[in-house]
Amino acid sequence: MTLPRPVPEAALLRLRRSYALLMLLLGVPVLAAVVYVLMLQFEIVSIGTQRQIAMSTDRRVTRLDAVLAPLRDNLLRLRDAVAEPTLTPEVAADRESFAPTADGSAWTLDALPAVLRDSAPQVLLAGPQRSDAARRDAAIGRAAVFAQQARLLGAGRGGLRRVIYVDAAGTQAWVHPWTGSEQLLAELQAASVAEAVQKLAQRHARGGRVYRDAVARQRRDDGVIAATVPLDLQERPGVIAVELPAAALDAARIEAGIGRFWVIDADGAVVWDYKARSEPAGSALDGELPALSADTLAEAASAPLAVRSGPLLLSARPSAVAPWRAVYASDNAHVRQLVMADVGPYAVGGAALLLLFLGTATVLWRRYALPSLRLVDYLHRKALDPQAEEPSLPSAWAPWAQLTRDTFDAARSAREGEQRAEALKSAIVDNALAAIMSTDAHGRIVEFNPAAESMFGRRRAEVLGQSVMETIVPPRHRAGHEAAIRALREGGALDTLGRRTEMMAMHASGREFPVEVVIWRTALGGQRISPPRSPISRSGARRPSRSSASARRCARARSFRRWAACSPAWHTS
Questions:
Q1: In angstroms, what CA-CA distances link 372 with 3, 14, 307, 383?
Q2: 217-223 contacts: CB < 8 A, separation 24 or more?
Q3: Given CB 3.0 to 4.6 Å as the disulfide criterion, which of 195, 205, 234, 474 pairs with 190?
Q4: Mean pLDDT value across residues 176-186
């Protein structure tokens, strides 16, 4: 017997590949879902960052306006107080210290005592009114009110540099806090007081434009921010100007975060630049501020979220106090890095989920799928080879392997017992002296022992499957025999069952001869095997006479001896 071979490695490899393909088909949707969730999370965080930039711009503009609004309001109150001195109490003024310059071209308060300089202004008169005592006296009185209100505005404190009044004609100027004329001449690079007043008029009375609330603001080249408001005195137009450094806006305490915040005026000039401390080197905002077109600024100002403009994320908002526009920008690459850092945990979670899926698939293959295949292979080999080698299985599969061994051992023992019983029956039938023949329910021969071969002159292989009527029953008796078989097949009774019966049989040569037959019926597996006939023995050449009892007894004894000693038997079904 050829022993069965284990399942070829190539077959296992093909199955493993099929399993891997199945896991891949299952894993692709999982991977797609993970990628989709990561992309969605990236988009959510990106939009959230853009919204935060826009909201940060709104907060910064609000804080900036909180600094500028009191300055505007105080400047307007100062203008009203100077324009209508009757609205304020009379302020004492040191008119004795008001004296002409050495060349007589102007009058100043350079002679003001030092103890009064913190509260009094510097008054410069360079026009025709210097010759009129009444006008000089009126100028000193208004300048005292101007100084008092300027102190309330915070001149000299809180980051303010100075407060100045100058008429548009360049004939009169007031400066608070008090500043000596020599210092003003050096600062303005003027040769005389009259020239200094003219330069102040050019800087403040003609250099700015009037915006809402009649307050104009501009940033000079020296970094000073000037806010001006018109003031007409005695039908002579002029302005009140407040000078403050750009650093005074630091009072807004604006944290720039991850970007850069700056303020531009209506002409696009930068008023204030606040650079982020956390902006990485080499970014688009490292160095000079980027040039932005009017359309880009308009889009950024109207968008609810920060907009992308080249390498920048940009948001802009107008000031409600000044004619300025606040711009907040962040480097897009830097923001993307921060977004990726926020999405990183989700990416790690997705990778862990995918690894968990792959690990689960691997465990299923190693602990369940592969042991199942090995057990099936073992079942196949164990069915053919009792000594088949057991496969290597996990401990959890040991009961199944034991069950397989016990089942096959029990089945093999039962089959060996059946084989021994069948061999014993075959030996009895083959070696019986009586002719034994068996047929099925349709009268086909299924057993034909050697004694039957000798009696009927036919080989066993020749008659198996043949009809018993056409083989051993003479033609003239076949109709009756067929009717008897049909009756038995349909459940009828036969009075000759189990009894010795004489009948005529036919040899292979066509010769007829008498036989004695014993017929019985057997059921195998619920199927009737009928009608069996056993044994079959030859009768005498002549039938005994019915009138001679002794002759019948002698014939029966002779027939019995022949059946017991040398007669064949016939068993049909």
A1: 22, 16, 60, 17
A2: 217/265, 217/271, 217/322, 217/323, 217/324, 218/265, 219/246, 219/265, 219/269, 219/270, 219/271
A3: 195
A4: 91
Three-state SS across 285-302? CCCCCCCCCHHHHHHHHH
CA atoms within 13 A on the CB side of 570: 31
Query: Is the pTM above the cut of 0.70?
Result: no
The model's pLDDT over 65-105, given as tens digits with 9 standing for 90+, comes to: 888 888 888 888 888 888 876 655 666 778 888 899 988 88
- What letters, b where the CB count within 10 A reaches 16 and e where it falls short, cover 226-261? bbbbbbeeeeeebbbbbbbebebbeebebebbbbbb
Tell me which amino acid residue 351 is. A
d(C-alpha 138, C-alpha 23), whole Å: 98
Is a pLDDT exceeding 60 seen at residue 156?
no
- Is 569 within 8 Å of 455 (Cβ atoms)? no
Angle at 435 between CA 430 and CA 437, to 5 degrees: 85
How far, in Å, CA of 167 to CA of 462, rounded? Answer: 147
Q: Six-digit token pair at 557?
A: 């004894």
Rounded-to-integer distance, Cα 479 and Cα 284, Å: 115
Question: Residue 561's Cα: distance from chain center in Å?
Answer: 97
Single-letter amino acid code for the residue at 537: S
Q: What is the residue type of 475?
A: P
Strands (E), 15-121: 99-100, 107-108
Q: Which residue has the tokens 């505005």?
A: 153
Give me the sign of the Cα torsion angle 102, 106, 107, 108: negative
Q: Is the peptide bond before 386 cis (omega within 30 degrees of 0)?
A: no
Neighbours of 369 (CB within 10 A): 15
Lowest mean pLDDT among 179-183, 211-215, 459-463: 211-215
- H/E stretch holding 21 reads helix 9-83
Are 312 and 290 spatial neighbours (Cβ–Cβ below 8 Å)? yes
Query: Strand, coil or helix: what is 465?
Result: coil
Q: Please tell me what DSSP assigns to residue 175.
A: E
In the Cβ-directed half-sphere of 413, how many Cα atoms lie within 13 Å?
Answer: 5
81 by DSSP, 3-state: which?
helix
Q: Of 330, 316, 124, nearest to 238 (Cα)?
A: 124
Q: Rounded to whole angstroms, how far apart are CA atoms 126 and 443?
A: 154
The Cα 23–Cα 517 span in angstroms is 72
- Residue ranges, comma separated, of all CATH 3.30.450.20 domains in the chain are 432-565
CATH of region 432-565: 3.30.450.20
